[in-house]
Amino acid sequence: MSLSFHINFDGCCAAAFRFYESNLGGVIGSLLAYRDSPASASVPDHWQEKILHGNISIDHIELAGTDLSADEYEKPTGFCLLLRLPSEDRVKSLFEEFKQQGEVILPPQQTFWSPCYAIVNDRFGVPWKFNTVAE
């Protein structure tokens, strides 16, 4: 058995996965476009390059994703992807990358459980929490 997380995107799945690959050391497994599937007949020409199914592995955890049309897409709510990071510097550096064109919820700061904790919705609408734990 394995567990993965599936995220819907508003047409930016490929860009999001490339961003996660670059910043989180992820490995993209596949980015299957609508044009390369039986679903190609059911989407307009401008949507053919969008992602029907993609997956990326980040430290042995799989994220899967798809692009949905504007009438199907809903911004992700009710969850956050939580990264436990080895240092305050790593929390701060990832936060700086992820906040670009995103939404800062909580800038990096000390909490009663963590020397450095931050929350941000990235430019792709995905909510992230970055946390380091005192050793």
Main sheet attributes: strand count, strand direction, barrel closure: 4 strands, mixed
CATH architecture verdict of the largest domain: Roll
Question: What share of the residues does DSSP label as strand, in percent?
Answer: 35-45%
Q: What is the overall number of helices?
A: 2
Q: Name the poorly predicted regions.
A: none
Radius of gyration from the alpha-carbon trace, in angstroms? 16 Å
Strand order of the largest sheet: 1-4-3-2
Q: Please state the average pLDDT score.
A: 95
Number of domains: 2
- Please provide the ordered H/E string of secondary-structure elements: EHEEEEHEEE
Helix content bin: 10-25%
Instruction: Output the CATH class name of the largest domain.
Output: Alpha Beta
CATH topology of the largest domain: 2,3-Dihydroxybiphenyl 1,2-Dioxygenase, domain 1
